[in-house]
Each structure stands twice: as C-alpha cells, then as structure tokens.
Amino acid sequence: MLINIALVLQRFQLELADPAYELELKSTLTIKPWNFRMKVRRRPGKVLTVGIPGGVSSSVAKKHEEQHGHAQSVQAQDESSNAPLSIFFGGNTGTCEALAEDLKTKLADHGLSASIGSLDTLTEHTPDRPVVIITSSYEGLPPDNAKKFVAWLEDVSNKNTSALNGVKYAVYGVGNSDWASTFHRIPKLVHELMKKAGAAEVVDIGLSDVKADLFGPWEDW
Question: What is the pLDDT of residues 155-196, one digit of tens each?
C-alpha cells in the first residue's frame, strides 16, 4: 500500500475537491471517509500514461522529462514567449475536465499558460486567444455544463457566418461507441459550427472512445 501511495504522489498532485470538507466516517465492512473526493493533477514533466498498459514506455517518459527540464530553462530565459490560451470542457462525469487539467499541465511543461472553464462560460464571451474545446455527448445531447454554449453556437452560426472571425480553435471529443447512433455527435457538431461561424481550426478534431482507449488518441492528439 505504501508503495502504491508513493507511486501516486510521484506522478500526481492531489488536492481536496471541496476545500471545506470535514471528515465524516462511514462504517460498512470497513471504516472509510464518507463523500471524500480529491482532484488529481499530473505533476509537471510526468507523462500521463507511463506505467499503464498501452501507455508510453519508461524510456519515452524519461525523454519527456528531460525535454520538460529544457522547457523550464527556456521559459526562465524568455517569459515573453508565453502564448496564453483558454481550455473549455463539457462533461457530466469529470473525464473531460480531467483532460483539460492534463492539457493545462502539458502546456506548462512547454512554458505556455492556460485558463480552464466549463463550456457554458464561453457563451457570448469568446476570448481573444486560441480556444481548446474538450467535450462529450450524452445520447446525442450536450453535457449539462455545455447546453447553453451549444444552443448559442447553433444560433450564432445560423445568423452570422463571420461572428467568430479571428478565433482560433481546436476540438477534442470523448464518447462511447456503445451508443453508435450518437457517437461523438456533440464534439463533431461543435467543430462544424465553430468553422461555420468563421473560426479557424488550428488542428484536426481529435476523438477518443472510452470503450476502447481513452488515453492513446489523447496523447497522440
């Protein structure tokens, strides 16, 4: 158990999901904390899938960490090279938010800063910086924290095909192929509507199937 804890702490930063949480114990077969939740964030320079079957090899991870050290050195030499961007997520289970946090950490590895927010906070307030959108679908419908954004984007793209001129964006979608008829519907819709409204994609849309492999396509993207 101690080794497992050490491995987790080596790769991830942990913090309370609710900073105001007060310990409450629940007894079943064992005693455990009740409603105790934590946020897990990859430590800078640590590859997300190292040590996981299908993940990157330790040699690749070592190379990544060496590059991370170089990136920190470059960042210290020239802070003006930072290129801020905004990351927005839509999801009900926390997966897309976790990917957003992972991307933010990866960007920091290369001296880039980023902000994170739910997709609904992007509604009618497009920032003057590149935008990364990470979202899922639920039976073909937007997640709870992306409903307003998708409705707004549909309206804007139908009324004004130049409304998002000058906006640079990228979309990553998460879905489950068990729901074949609506698989990745919302990520693909958002990607199409952003382009229709005049935004310029900076990279092809990326897609993961949680049934098959969530992290592989994400790392490639």
Answer: 999 988 888 999 999 999 999 999 999 999 999 999 999 999
158, two tokens:
């139908």
Q: Which two tokens stand for residue 44?
A: 């800078």
Helix or strand run (H / E) with residue 10? helix 2-11
**Nearest Cα to 87, choosing from 133, 48, 35?**
133
Residues 168 and 93 in one domain: yes
What is the model's pTM? Answer: 0.67
Q: Which residue bears the tokens 């990917």?
A: 99
Q: Tokens for 79?
A: 């802070």
Domain with 214 in it: 81-220
Type and span of the H or E element at 15? strand 12-16
In-domain check, residue 169: yes
How far is residue 202 CA from its own chain's centroid?
Answer: 17
